[in-house]
């Protein structure tokens, strides 16, 4: 993984990198000022030569953390060497006055900076960089980054999803030999990953499923297959890679991921699917139809319970009752206008009161008929609320 730490002079870049080394201990560290000391003499000619050679130095390493301010020609040259969405940026935010105060405690005499007419002192340079960063120069120049994470030097590096990104780029490299379009969805696609996030990825390819498995199995031990999905676990990270041969098979989950910038989900695109992904991301969800479908499922499984009671099949009753619970919880979330992660709402326990949970959960020592009657009353009450809110009716 290529990880760029960008920020103003004395914004804490080196301090942060020391902490990053505890998470990524095998990574090479490249600092542009160290490179200046080794290769420049303070002349403009040598500095402009650095603009060409420093980017090439970065490419020598597969896993590297690079420190520089992030502006200017050297940054443009670096970015030009990379493919879209092939690296990560940590953008350090620090007030200019803090950077100036820190800079006064340091000596820059050993670093051969070139002098340009009207350049000013270090404080002036800090103010200029601060203004450029405020104007969005990092985002403009480093637009090929898969993600630009805004942070500061005091961040707890254990809260950054670096292991997830490392795995994403490893998967990207492995799949580079396969004719395919590879794209992220879920929190990775939204660029909202945390250290607890899974990696959700689609592999669109016409190559045999077995060939994809062989590629993955060479690099990861214990690759599991569930239907058309490859499941990979590394350390605490779970990656689920859905292998498809029709882009339309990704529409539902991609749309439900609420992705704002489809271009930032593409790791490679041999089949030119960006336009399709943009279409998927713009589809407006018909929440009313989803509510109706969920209610119909709830009614179906609730009405299955009396026949199961008659057969005396306690386990089947338990199983169907749990489906009733699931649909009931979803509808309670919908009543609060929460349609995010609608198949399995996050932290869903909060949508039911303690009394509701006690009443709706079935235990094998409970009386089947009494439990059914309790659940039926709960369901009927909920459906009446749904009918009123969404102005729809159900045959009960």
Strand content: 5-15%
Morphology call: elongated
CATH topology of the largest domain: Rossmann fold
Report strand order across the widest sheet.
8-9-10-7-6-11
CATH architecture of the largest domain: 3-Layer(aba) Sandwich
Number of strands: 11
Rg calculated over all Cα atoms: 28 Å
Biggest beta sheet summary = 6 strands, mixed
End-to-end Cα distance, whole Å, is 58 Å
Helix and strand element order: EHEHHEHEHHHEHEHEHEEEHEHHHHH
Class by SSE composition: alpha/beta
Task: Give the number of helices.
Answer: 16
Low-confidence blocks of residues: none
Task: Give the name of the CATH superfamily of the largest domain.
Answer: P-loop containing nucleotide triphosphate hydrolases
Helix content: 40-55%
Q: How confident is the prediction overall: mean pLDDT?
A: 94
Number of domains: 3
What is the level 1 CATH name of the largest domain? Alpha Beta
